[in-house]
Give the backbone structure.
Amino acid sequence: MASASTGYGSEPRRHVVPAGLRAPFEARAWRELLYILISLPMAVLSFSYAITMLALGVGLLVTFLGIPVLGAALAGCRALGAVERARARALLRLDVAAPEPVLVRKGKDGSRGPIAWMGAILRSGTSWRHALYSVISFPWAVFSFVVAVAVWTYGWAMLTYPLWHWVFPRYTDTPGLQLYGDGNGDGFYLDSSLELAATCVVGALLVLAGPWINRLLTQVDRLLVSGLLGPSRLATRVSELESDRGTVVDTAAADLRRIERDLHDGAQARLVALAMDLGLAKEKLLEDPEAAARMVDEAHGEVKLALQELRDLARGIHPAILTDRGLGPALSALAARCSVPVHVVVDIPERPVPAIEGIAYFTVSELLQNISKHSGARRAGVDVWRSDGRIMLQVTDDGHGGADTTSGSGLAGLAERLDAVDGILVVDSPPGGPTTITAELPWRV
């Protein structure tokens, strides 16, 4: 059950050094630290701009000037948000899509002037989310900066303290770094070998913990950027529905083309040939009755073949057994036509809606066709059950594996069709097998 491309790359590189020890020296750790360091000046700029412009705009609302000032404030926050998304993409590897553009309505005269633009940006929830990000990112940036810089500087300073502690006795007339004292020279100094070793160990622990602390800090930044600077959930859902609608339309058009092709090349061509044979038999009926009888007998066989082709075509559109008896008997009949033995288990308390039932049937049908054509399997299985308002389909085989959903494969198209109804297709097919493909569909749409 595989396409030509298995989608499996080379094995991941194995590191001799554990992740905890190599983290301080990895590029990701330095990118996240750089992100935190840059966040403070960026947050100061964004916070100052947003608070100043919003306060000025609100103060000027008693005059007409307040509206354009507020519009400019929100436009500036959106521009700063674009910079933040680019910074997160470059340093955090967080790819957040740009939000939906400001929808400017036409005026009474059909134009989109400055007044319409200001009204649109003030009505835009996305613009206000950008302004909110400019405000709340400032205190978090201050906190992240203080924590990250403190851990990084203290960690490396303490780790390298044995290399530079000689500075104190030579230039400050003290035996070492003073942890506490009374100002008269009495106190505790880090100067003995044991204290140097302990300082180095504590510094090493801080250096090792630093990347993970920064990762936790930047995780909050990831949530802020993706939640406030990206598209709204409504816009994302609308985009998904538009994409799903396109997939459904394309699938329906492809099915219509397939039906037209099957009719034209199959049953229609056979019926045309049948009509010609019957015409010849009619002409020979009086001259050579025996030849005419043979031709009629051959035409009878062609009629049977044409009927079988039409039945197969109707079954491919929507099988009657699925409508009359449900998913269990329909899948059993489908498994009986597979080239390998298939064990079918259907455990659903009731029938799903017809649309989902049909999608489930044709999903199993396509997967069983792949088993027959590509897998080299000796046996297969189909399990169907219901779980938390979802219908689950699982098709397994003991073939050579290597199936994937890369672009261009049959499974990729199947995954797109399931996604159009909020379904999921998961493929587990290592080279050498076995293959397990799980489909999840909503019980109702």
Q: What stands out?
A: Strands lie at 177-181, 187-190, 342-347, 380-387, 390-397, 424-428, 435-442. Confidence is low (pLDDT under 50) at residues 1-12. The CA atoms of residues 70 and 297 lie 87 Å apart. The chain has three domains: 19-228, 233-317, 324-442.
